[in-house]
Amino acid sequence: xxxxxxxxxxxxxxxxxxxxxAVPEVTKAGEQTIAGEVTYRERIALxxxxxxxxxxxxxxxxxxxxxxxxxxxxxPTGQVPIKFVIDFDPKAIQKGRTYALQARITVGEQLIFVxxxxxxxxxxxxxxxxxxxxxxx
Length: 137
Known about the structure:
This protein is an alpha+beta fold. Helix content is about 15%, strand content about 40%. The strands form two sheets. Strands 2, 3, 5, 6 and 7 form a five-stranded antiparallel sheet that branches. A three-stranded mixed sheet has the order 4-1-8, with no helix packed on it. The model is unreliable at about 15-25 (pLDDT under 50).
């Protein structure tokens, strides 16, 4: 009986586990990503409970709120720069529209840093993005 259990582990379970670990992470079909980092110039350490939120938004209409296409919430494990990756559906991107990245760092409900200028980009270009945030006034 012990031989059958050992045989099961050697020839059954071990190859299954190794096969699962060797398969790359599955992503949604047709999904694209925007990668980059958020930083600030002030020489201030982030509190351990800080949270970064980065959004890809359609900012085409000047007199209307931005339409958020994708959002990523990150609890930084260190200091700036904070790396991010946002997954989005490329079908949500329309030709002739204007897109921007918006970022903010909060501690609880308190806003610590925020983008104060438009960080426009072509979401389909696949270029790394560097987003600068500043302290609100």
